[in-house]
Amino acid sequence: MSIEFSKYHGLGNDFILIDNRYQAEPCLTPQQAVRACDRHRGIGADGVIFLMPGEDGTDYAMRIFNSDGSEPEMCGNGIRCLAQFIAELEERQMGSYRIHTLGGVMVPQLQPDGQVTVNMGQPRLRAVEIPTTLSDPESKVVDQPLKVTGQSWRVTCVSMGNPHCITFVADLATIALETLGPQFEHHPVFPQRTNTEFIQVVRPDYLKMHVWERGAGATLACGTGACAALVAGVLTQRCQPQATVELPGGPLEIEWSSPEASVMMTGPAEKVFSGSLS
């Protein structure tokens, strides 16, 4: 049996997209997803995204297996790719969709210029929501010390439906991502592991970011991470409520207009090719 797929990427964060609307569980196991994501022996991707039947009144649902077989709650670049995939299946140029994810309901909107704007919902800031043991469960974790590899880092933690640990640095070029990333990801204060963003503030409206993604490692872009970075920048009074976040794969536009507002993310999603997986 073969499974039809499409390959998409959002700023180089790439995914295998599968139409899984006609069954209740993903058609690949986590182990099969790992093989499909292998860049030498498979299709190659940071993860596999399954378009699932809607739940609780939503249009569709989204499931993801990372390249290591783990299942994250949400993926910002991935949901933009999923929106474009849905539009292709429905043969539509425009549209908005309510998509159920393990991190909550997300609403992507396709724009006339091909960009996708996603209402990412409100950030979750209490330690219990991240989750992390860095603070009391009901308290925020803002500019708190965390010792990693013998060095003390000041970190802010944000959940965008998935956990993020953000630290601001003077120069991204000095960050050994492949060494530090796993140490943050598996730190015992994060019981469900964490995504980690290293942020250099160029201007209050322009941030540069390198990311180590939980379950995928160093990637070219992370949409939820860019959202979390802007929220952390506002909480620590380092940046404006609307800013460009420059990732290795390109820029995302992020806005968090007030503490009660949802975070809005705008960026591209592009189809690469389609095929069938044996």
List keywords for this structure.
Diaminopimelate Epimerase, Chain A, domain 1, 16% helix, single chain, 2 domains, 39% strand, 4 helices, 278 residues, alpha+beta
Could you give a quick summary of the protein structure above?
The chain has about 280 residues and is of the alpha+beta class.
Question: How would you sum up this structure, described in words?
Answer:
The protein has 278 residues and is of the alpha+beta class. The chain folds into 2 domains: 124 residues, Diaminopimelate Epimerase, Chain A, domain 1; 136 residues, Roll (Diaminopimelate Epimerase, Chain A, domain 1). Helix content is 16%, strand content 39%. It has an 18-stranded mixed beta sheet that branches. Strand 2, helix 1 and strand 3 form a beta-alpha-beta unit. The longest helix is centred in the N-terminal third of the chain and has 15 residues. The chain is globular and about 50 Å long. The N and C termini lie close together (6 Å). The mean pLDDT is 96.
What is the CATH architecture annotation of the largest domain? Roll
Please tell me the total number of domains.
2
Reading off the top of the CATH hierarchy, the class of the largest domain is best stated as Alpha Beta
Number of strands: 18
Order of SSEs, N→C?
A: EEHEEHEEEEEEEHEEEHEEEE
How would you describe the oligomerization state of the chains in this entry?
A: single chain
- Low-confidence spans: none
Instruction: Indicate the structural class.
Output: alpha+beta
> CATH topology of the largest domain, which one?
Diaminopimelate Epimerase, Chain A, domain 1
Mean pLDDT, to the nearest integer, reads: 96
| Strand coverage percent | 35-45%
The biggest beta sheet is recorded as: 18 strands, mixed
Distance between the termini: 6 Å
The helix count comes to 4
Q: Name the CATH superfamily assignment of the largest domain.
A: Diaminopimelate Epimerase, Chain A, domain 1
CA gyration radius, whole angstroms:
18 Å
Helix content: 10-25%
Task: Characterize the overall form.
Answer: globular
